[in-house]
Specification:
2 copies of one chain form a homodimer. By secondary structure, chain A is an all-alpha fold. Chain A has 9 helices and no strands. Chain A binds a DNA duplex through helix 3.
Chain lengths: ~220, ~220
DNA sequence: CATGCTGCTGTACGATCGTTCAACAACGTA
DNA sequence: TACGTTGTTGAACGATCGTACAGCAGCATG
């Protein structure tokens, strides 16, 4: 019994600001995806996870698909934001920034079997949901920009010591460099996928080493003009 | 009117052997996955696609999950079988066999957006279905054996010209070779994924070239003992 | 303490899901 | 032609889905 004679009746629910509640529902959605996969994507499962009633979701989101799209947007921007923060936290050298990027890619919370499971469910929705496609395009752009920015930094530095004035516009990368960039992305994604599927096969540091070796050979080729 | 006075009444359905019907249902399942994604995985959608009634599926399969697992098994073995056939069709040189493997990997019917969509749905089921996990383990083994076989062939040939008798057991590959094999798988899968997501980004032949360059540098390192 | 706004609850509804099963009918066989 | 086997149909069942909505109740305000 507390605070004198005042009735200590516990409220049956707590009102929250729409913004906070929306965020909680988004996080509950992702948690359900981690736990139950595609079957976790039901209004009742999500509302139970969030500790609210079934009706609340449609009070904050026009329909289920909008909630899922919002969760996808959140999940994407968490990834890109985390990588970007890691890069900005690193030293100023282009090589150190690339290393920070790679290490963040092969670290929790990104390197996680549950996280892969969530991605896979979202990818499964991609083909048949315009909402998901829109979110994908919007966030993937940030990822590509981040990675491409680091690569051009690196290549500019690799070329610089040899000749002061560039022979061509630096925007038009030579075809093998374009291919090498494509290969780096593929290697990165492939290693990430492989580790999540079979975490015992290799250590994260080894994945970083493989990617760095690729980048290094790329720089050597660039230096050879 | 045909064949004289005999009633030409069209039968309402055609009886088929269980084996044939099962196969037809499996193919209808995959077709539904290509068309409708995860939402295509319903008894009614699949039976409509196969042109049969809703009850027939449970006559040939104990339940829906068993049908899906059978479809997954079929899909997997089609992939591995196709790759294996391409390898065996190739010339006898290890390098030619590897090239055939890579070219088959970056060709229809494997290199297809619809096919990726089907894979993604299956992967989404993986975590929460023991049936799918069992099928995955059984078929993935064949894929790994095929790829590893070609790599050991290649490396054995690369080492042979230099020293006749191997210094160590050829089974215990040196750590960087093991890593390189992991990297090749990642590069292969990553490029495949990337192409399916964005078919315009590069040509299949370029993907083959990237993988072959990786294999070549791997052979060079092996030759250096 | 009374009032109003609105976040929130929870029942209800129609649609669709996987599965069951009794009846039907195609087709080999006698 | 009649029969028996069995592949096949399709209605029906209970469960669960997403959504709607009328009313409850938390909390700031006066």
């Amino acid at each position: 019994m507390k605070s004198g004679g005042v009735r200590a009746r516990k409220p049956r629910f707590e009102r929250q600001l729409p913004q906070q509640r929306r965020q909680a529902l988004i996080e509950a959605t992702i948690e359900c995806l981690k736990r139950y996969g595609h079957e976790g994507l039901s209004i009742r499962t999500i509302s139970a996870q969030a500790g609210v009633s079934v009706g609340l979701i449609n009070h904050h989101f026009p329909n289920k698909n909008q909630l899922i799209a919002a969760a996808y947007r959140h999940f994407n921007s968490e990834l890109v934001g985390g990588l970007q923060a890691a890069v900005e936290r690193a030293a100023d050298s282009p090589r150190a920034r690339m290393r920070a990027f790679l290490e963040a890619s092969f670290c929790p919370p990104n390197l996680d079997q549950d996280v892969l499971a969530v991605w896979v469910v979202f990818w499964g929705l991609y083909r048949h949901s315009r909402l998901i496609q829109r979110v994908q395009r919007a966030t993937y752009r940030g990822y590509v920009r981040l990675l491409r920015g680091m690569l051009t930094e690196l290549l500019a530095q690799a070329r610089a010591p040899q000749r002061r004035r560039p022979r061509r516009s630096s925007r038009a990368a030579r075809p093998d460099l374009r291919l090498a960039a494509i290969g780096l992305t593929a290697l990165l994604d492939g290693l990430w996928l492989e580790w999540c599927l079979e975490p015992g096969a290799f250590r994260p540091a080894e994945a970083v080493a493989l990617c760095e070796a690729w980048v290094e050979s790329l720089c050597r080729r660039a230096a050879r003009s």
